[in-house]
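Whether sequence alone determines local backbone shape is best considered at the level of individual chains. When preparing material for the folding task, we compiled for one chain both its residues and its backbone structure tokens. The sequence in question and its structure tokens are set out directly beneath this paragraph.
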Amino acid sequence: MENPFYRDNLEQILAFTQGRNVLRVKEVMRFTGIGDHRTVRKLYPINEDGTISAATLARSMCPRTK
């Protein structure tokens, strides 16, 4: 079942990136307001090459429900 916040998050991310589906760590930092790249890497599943897909970021930002 899809989290109800997923689509909202994805829409905001795609608007921020002007439709690009891959973000770099610095873009995630700007989008989220997180000032430290280490925190971004702890909170979100960043790939080894320093990227994350918009869909993965949107899913990672959703609150976990039990």
